[in-house]
Every structure is written in structure tokens, then in C-alpha cells.
Specification:
Layout: E1 3-7, H1 11-23, E2 27-31, H2 34-44, E3 48-52, E4 54-55, E5 58-59, H3 60-69, E6 75-79, H4 84-92, E7 97-100, E8 128-129, E9 132-139, E10 142-149
Parallel strand pairs: 1-2, 1-3, 3-6, 6-7
Antiparallel strand pairs: 4-5, 8-9, 9-10
Helix pairs in contact: 2-3
Length: 151
Amino acid sequence: MIPVLVVDDEVQIRRLLRLYLEKEGYAVFEADTCEEGLRQFNALKPGIVLLDLGLPDGDGRELLQAVRKRGDTPVIILSVRNAEEDITGHLDAGADDYLIKPFGVGELSPGCGWPCVTACPRRPRASRSGWGFWRCTWTSGKPFGTGFLST
């Protein structure tokens, strides 16, 4: 079972994600602050982190940076912030994906490929280019899927 750490201050979102992800076979752990998220991250070494940005004790970007200092655990941002500079800034800072709230739980399905990133320790990061973003998720060292988002 892949452990998933959900860091979000909204109990309803944590509950929804827990129900969905446990049904899909994941072990789900929850935190509602940056401090608790970092504590659980260090203790659990999760396979993936789902991270809200607007947390009561700080910005989720601080936790993203702390996770990046400790390795390359996949981090998916879950946020109401939908400005292009927020999205691009967090992807450039090391987030593996960015979902804008509200989102459907189907966007977190295995068919979207996000759990597969744990299978390959060296995966490409989203990065800026003149054409937009190039995203590639890897599984077993081979491309699983690619996407292009225009800026």
C-alpha cells in the first residue's frame, strides 16, 4: 500500500480524499497545518503528498520547499489559487502537479498516472519554456504519458 499524506485545513476535503483513496487501496494520513504536515512527512516517508497552499500556520509552499530539501517525493498542489503565476511558480518550485479546487476526485485516479511517479526515483519536473509546460510522468523508467499546457 502506498502511503499518501494529505495536508489540508479543510476537514471535508480530507474526508473526501480519504474515502476515495482508501477505496483505491492507498493508506491515507492527514495533517491540517504545515507543522503537522512536516512532522508526519518526516515520520511516515509517504509515497506522495497532496498539499493545500492556504494553511493556518503558513503557506504550503514552505512545506513544499521542506519536502524538496528531503528528496523527490511527488507533491501535488490542491489549491483555490488559479492565477497563472501561482501555478507556474509552484511547478517551478518543485510541485509535480497542480489541481485547482474544486476538483473531481476522478482527477486523482490511477488512470491520471500520479501514483505511478513513485515507481521511478528520477522523473522530470515541470519547467517553464517559451512554449509552455512539458510534463511527463514515468513508470518503470518509461514514459507513461505526456501533456502540454499552453501559457
